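Assess this:
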Amino acid sequence: MKMWSGRFRQPLDPEFEHWQRSFEFDRRLLKYELAASAAHARALKNAGVLLADELISILEGLQKIGEQTDPNSFAVKDNEAEDVHHYVETQLVSLIGEIGYKLHSGRSRNEQIATDLRLYVRAAIDQLRSELSELCTAFVGRAEQAGTAAMPAYTHLQHAEPVLVAHWLLAYVEMFLRDADRLAECRARTNICPLGSGAVAGATLPLDRTFMAQELEFASPTANSIDATSDRDFALEFVNALSVLALHLSRWAEEMILFASHEFGFMHLPEAYSTGSSAMPQKMNPDLLELVRGKTGRTIGCATALMVTIKGLPLAYNKDLQETQQPLFDAAETMMNMLPLVAGFMKAVELDFERMGEAAQSGFMNAWAAATYLVNRGVPSRLAHEQVGKAVKLCLEKNCDLNGLTLRELHELNPAFDERFYECLKLTSVLAMHDVIGGTAPDRVRRAIAETKKKIDSLREEVHAHA
């Protein structure tokens, strides 16, 4: 029996009936539907709508549905369910009889789906933040292993300055920690309860909405029933946060693809996360990295689909909102599946510190250090920049590095140069020069690693508090 069929004189067109169902994908919401239904049942008992034995029967029936249903296969087996709400109702009635129909007293599927989706997003955020803590730990672990190994940093994809490999790795950790913060902020705005909003105007029974919110560990009930049943801001914010996370992962993947190429040679791909070519026997292809990069477009597409679906909808609930579920599920599951693989890749990849170190000492990456040497000797910054630029030009003519210039040649550019200039050009000196908070000086990076580990511990504690 349909949940709405009483007013209709003709059955639905069979093809339309099949086409308009959402059960194939909203089956993911089963455990949240069962939890929300249990909270609603208790509120009905408190309002005098259900007797004590009826409440017990309904709660036992809901529990049995959860125990007997395989969330990975039951959508295929049940050909009659219109959506997850219909499925639970029909299963409940088959288990406990017509008392099961009383569960729907005073509520609407509009508030049910709004509640289920918030519960889904809240749980997904907790899982993603947990995965992000593990990913950050993998990056920090590799940063500690790198020690004082150096590599080139790039601007415009051109050699810029040498940095510690650990400093480069920590740059990505900063991105991922911001992603975790964004998800936490989204969680706070998601964590309000639509139950009791009815179809649009609020429940028709005296239900204790605060009680239902507390039962489901929401911070509070929603403030407006019209907004509650039509709001999908939490889904938009969530998927947009995932899009930013995906962008960060894509930037990382692109760098790793470049650095694993023969031209860079900074790292060797782990075989466990790579594939070969069906034509060229020598090939090892960065498939994980390329898929990470590719799935970023997919995630951004989900965010776009959500925004376009919602942009022209009048208040309150419209069937169009059914189309917001699949992009939400797809983006969440894409990221939840991806993060553990990225962490595994980072633990397995082999970094070539020797090759990176050699590259860190080529391409005049000590030029700014040379200019800083002159600044420290009283030369105005702009003049120091110009004179070191002329020194680089001379080196290109002589086919040497800055330390290949004689003191006499340097004096012709500026008499402020002396023997100490050559010491400032050494890699250790160039790295140590960046001795500021957030800089790549080895001591600063050691302290940054310690501080980052504390941030990751705090993230873990926050996640565990919601478990």
User: Anything to note?
Assistant: DSSP finds 20 helices and six strands in the chain. Residues 367-425 form a domain with the Ribonucleotide Reductase Protein R1; domain 1 fold (CATH 1.10.40.30). The chain has a mean pLDDT of 94. The beta strands are 150-155, 158-164, 192-193, 220-221, 267-268, 350-351.
